[in-house]
Design goal:
single chain, about 625 residues, Heat Shock Protein 90, Ribosomal Protein S8, Chain: A, domain 1, 8-stranded mixed beta sheet, 5-stranded mixed beta sheet, binds adenosine-5'-diphosphate, binds magnesium ion
C-alpha cells in the first residue's frame, strides 16, 4: 500500500489555524488593535463597514515594519515578540503566537501598508487567501495600516454564519472597549459606516471610562487600590446605585490584558451583597497586576481566560479590597436588624385567670434566610392568627374545588393527574409556599412542584404582549412627556441600526445626538412601561442570542417588555398572588419554559423524595 501522509500546504494550515483565531470580525479587530498597541502606537483608528463583514481597517502610528518584516509578519509562527520557550513565562506584549496575521490573511483579502520612522519609503502588500498579489515600495505615513476586506470570502460555510450587522458591530464594540480601557494613554477612534461611534482622547482611566460609558457612570465611580505581594489591584467600581440588570460594564484586566474570570467576578459581586438587588450587576473596571510567572495566559486560544497560581487567595484580597473601597465612601451600612427584637414581657397579677397564650406567627420570617429583607415583611394579612379548627373547616369548604387544581386540570392535563381530588392542602394560603422570595412550592400528585416566580411571570406576560403586538402592530400611543435617555455610544449605535424593527412595532424614538434619545411613543397595547427600562431591556435582548427566534423582532420586543414588567425576585408574594400566577402560567401555551427558553417549573418526584429518606 502506498504511503498516505502528506504535509499540508501552508495556505491550508493557515486556514485551519484561522478557525481558532478568527471567529468573527471582532476577533480581527482584537488581534489588529493588540498588534498596534504592541507596536507602541499613541493613536489607533478603527474603521468598520457593515459590522466588519465588508471591511475592517486599523490605522496606527506605531513603530511600523521594514520591507522584509512586512512580508514575514504574514507567515505563520512569525513574531518579533518571543525568541525562545523561556520567554513564554515573562510575556509583556499582547501577542506572542505569531499566528494572527497569517490566519487573517488566509481567510480574507488583506492590504498592509507600513513604514518605519526612519525609512523614506514604506511597503504595501496585498494578499488574498494567503496568496501574495502585490508587494512593492510605496509612500505612506509612519506606522501601519491594515485593511481586511470580505472576511471568509473563501470559506462560504463560515461567511454564512456571520450574524447581523448590528450584532457583529456589538461584538466589535466590546473588543474595542476592552482595548480602549486597558490603554487610556492611547487615543482611539471607532467609525462604523462613516459614522463616528467613539472618539477617545488620551487621558486617565477615569476619563476613559466616562468617555466610553457615559457621564452618569463617570459620576458614580469609587476608587479601588490595594497593594499586596501577590497582586496589586487598582481601578474603579460603581456605586451600588449604578448597578444594572444587564451586563456590559464589567471588566477585569490582568497586566493590562482583558480577562474573563467568573470566579473573581463573584468576589466583587459578593462585596455588594445586600447593597444591590440580586438581579443586578455592579459596574467595575478592575486592573490586576501580578508577576507574569504566576499566571498562565495560554490556557485558551483567544486568551481571555487566565489561570492564577493561587486563585483563592486573590479572591479574598479582591473581595476585601472592594469592601474596603465602599467602606471608605461610607456606603456599607452598619449592621441593622430588619425585625424588631424587642420582646414585651406582659405583667400578670397573681390573681389573673390563666388562659392559653395566643401566638402570633409571621409565616414569612425565617432567621436563616439571607434574602429576608424589608421588602418581604408580611403585609397585614399574612401575619395571621392560627384559625380555630371550625374556621379552618369553613375555609376548606369555601375554597374546595376552586382554583388551582380544577383550572390546572382543564388547561394543562398532562402536568396534573385528573383523578387526584386530594391535593394535600385546601386553600391558597396553605397550598402555595414561597421559598427564598423566589420559588413557589406546591404539592402535586407526582411530587413537589417548584416554580420560578420571575420566569413564570415573564412567560405569562410574554404570551400576552406577543398577542397584543401581533394583533395591533404599529398602533402606538404618544407619550405626553417624551423621556430622554442617555445611552452608551455603543448602545446608541446599536439602537440606530435596529430602529426600523422597533418603530414597526410602535416604539418611536428620536435620536438627539450625543448618545441621547427621546422615547416619543410606545405601543398602545403596553401601558405603564418605564421607557428607559424597556429600551435597555430591548438592547440587552438584542445582544443575546435567544435561540431560533433570534431574528424575530416581535419576539424580542415582547421578551424585553416581559422582562421589564415581570415581578422581580426578592418580592414576597401573597398566597392569592401565587395562586393567580400559577393559574395563569398553566393557561399559557408553553408553561414549562420562560420566553428565553429556561425552565419555569421543576418537580421533585415522590419516588425521589422517598429515596432521599431511605
Ligand atoms: P504576534 O502579535 O503574536 O507576534 P501577529 O501575527 O499578530 O503575531 O504579528 C506578527 C508580527 O508582525 C508581530 O510580532 C510584529 O512584529 C509585526 N506586526 C504586526 N502588526 C504590527 C503593527 N501594527 N505595527 C508593527 N508591527 C506589527
Ligand atoms: Mg498579534
Amino acid at each position: 500500500m502506498p504511503d498516505i501522509i502528506q504535509l499540508l500546504p501552508d495556505s491550508v494550515a493557515n486556514q485551519i489555524a484561522a478557525g481558532e483565531v478568527v471567529q468573527r470580525p471582532a476577533s480581527v479587530v482584537k488581534e489588529l488593535t493588540e498588534n498596534s498597541i504592541d507596536a507602541g502606537s499613541t493613536d489607533i483608528q478603527v474603521i468598520i463597514r457593515d459590522g466588519g463583514k465588508a471591511l475592517i481597517q486599523i490605522i496606527d502610528n506605531g513603530c511600523g515594519m521594514s520591507e522584509t518584516d512586512a512580508r514575514l509578519c504574514l507567515e505563520r509562527h512569525a513574531t518579533s515578540k518571543i525568541r525562545e520557550a523561556n520567554d513564554l513565562f515573562a510575556i509583556k506584549t499582547m501577542g506572542f503566537r505569531g499566528e494572527a496575521l497569517a490566519s487573517i490573511a488566509a481567510v480574507a483579502e488583506v492590504e498592509l501598508k507600513t513604514c518605519k520612522p526612519d525609512d523614506k519609503v514604506g511597503t504595501i502588500i496585498r494578499i488574498s487567501g494567503s496568496e501574495v498579489i502585490e508587494h512593492e515600495p510605496t509612500s505612506c505615513t509612519v506606522g501601519t495600516s491594515i485593511c481586511v476586506k470580505n472576511l471568509f470570502f473563501n470559506i462560504p460555510a463560515r461567511r454564512k454564519f456571520l450574524k447581523s450587522t448590528s450584532l457583529e458591530l456589538k461584538h466589535i464594540i466590546t473588543e474595542f472597549q476592552r482595548a480602549a480601557l486597558a490603554n487610556p494613554q492611547i487615543s482611539f477612534s471607532l467609525h462604523h459606516n462613516g459614522a463616528n461611534v467613539y472618539k477617545l482622547p488620551a487621558g486617565s482611566v477615569k476619563q476613559r471610562i466616562t468617555h466610553l460609558m457615559g457621564k452618569n457612570l463617570g459620576k458614580n465611580l469609587i476608587d479601588l487600590k490595594t497593594d499586596t505581594s501577590v497582586i496589586s489591584i487598582s481601578g474603579f467600581i460603581g456605586r451600588p446605585e449604578s448597578a444594572k440588570k444587564t451586563p456590559g460594564e464589567q471588566f477585569f484586566f490582568i497586566n493590562n490584558r482583558f480577562m474573563r474570570n467568573p470566579y473573581l467576578h463573584k468576589a466583587v459581586v459578593k462585596a455588594y451583597e445586600k447593597l444591590i438587588s440580586p438581579d443586578t450587576i455592579p459596574p467595575y473596571f478592575i486592573f490586576l497586576e501580578a508577576d507574569p510567572a504566576t499566571i498562565d495566559v495560554n490556557i485558551h486560544p483567544t486568551k481571555t481566560e487566565i489561570k492564577f497560581e493561587d486563585e483563592r487567595l486573590i479572591w479574598q484580597i479582591l473581595n476585601a479590597s472592594v469592601r474596603e473601597a465602599m467602606g471608605k465612601f461610607a456606603i456599607v451600612p452598619s449592621i441593622d436588624f430588619d425585625t424588631e427584637m424587642v420582646i414585651d414581657v406582659p405583667f400578670f397579677p397573681k390573681s389573673a385567670p390563666v388562659s392559653p397564650p395566643e401566638i402570633e406567627i409571621n409565616p414569612n420570617y425565617n432567621p436563616f434566610d439571607s434574602d429576608y429583607s424589608n421588602q418581604s415583611l408580611p403585609k397585614q394579612s399574612s401575619s395571621f392568627h392560627r384559625p380555630s379548627a371550625r374556621g379552618w373547616q369553613e375555609l376548606f369548604q369555601q375554597e374546595q374545588g376552586k382554583g388551582f387544581e380544577e383550572k390546572a386540570e382543564q388547561q394543562s392535563p398532562s402536568l396534573f393527574n385528573h383523578t387526584d381530588k386530594d391535593l394535600i392542602v385546601p386553600n391558597a394560603t396553605e397550598r402555595f409556599f414561597q421559598f427564598k422570595n423566589r420559588y413557589i412550592l406546591t404539592s402535586v400528585k407526582s411530587g413537589l412542584m417548584m416554580i420560578d416566580q420571575k420566569r413564570a411571570h415573564e412567560r405569562i406576560l410574554y404570551e400576552n404582549y406577543l398577542q397584543n403586538i401581533t394583533d395591533g402592530v404599529a398602533s402606538s400611543q404618544q407619550e405626553l412627556f417624551p423621556q430622554t435617555i442617555e445611552l452608551s455610544a455603543g448602545d446608541f449605535t446599536l439602537l440606530q441600526s435596529i430602529i426600523n424593527d422597533l418603530s414597526a412595532l410602535g416604539v418611536v424614538v428620536s435620536f438627539l445626538g450625543q448618545n441621547t434619545i427621546a422615547v416619543n411613543a410606545l405601543p398602545a397595547s403596553i401601558k405603564n412601561t418605564n421607557p428607559e427600562q424597556l429600551i435597555n431591556n430591548f438592547l440587552q435582548v438584542f445582544k443575546e442570542n435567544t435561540g431560533e427566534q433570534t431574528d424575530n423582532p416581535k419576539h424580542k420586543l415582547a421578551l424585553s417588555l416581559a422582562r421589564a414588567a415581570s415581578i422581580p425576585y426578592n418580592r414576597s408574594l401573597e398566597p392569592i398572588e401565587m395562586q393567580d400566577l400559577v393559574d395563569k402560567l398553566f393557561a399559557c401555551q408553553q408553561p414549562n419554559l420562560s420566553p428565553d427558553g429556561k425552565p419555569t417549573i421543576t418537580t421533585i418526584e415522590v419516588d425521589e423524595l422517598e429515596k432521599r429518606f431511605r
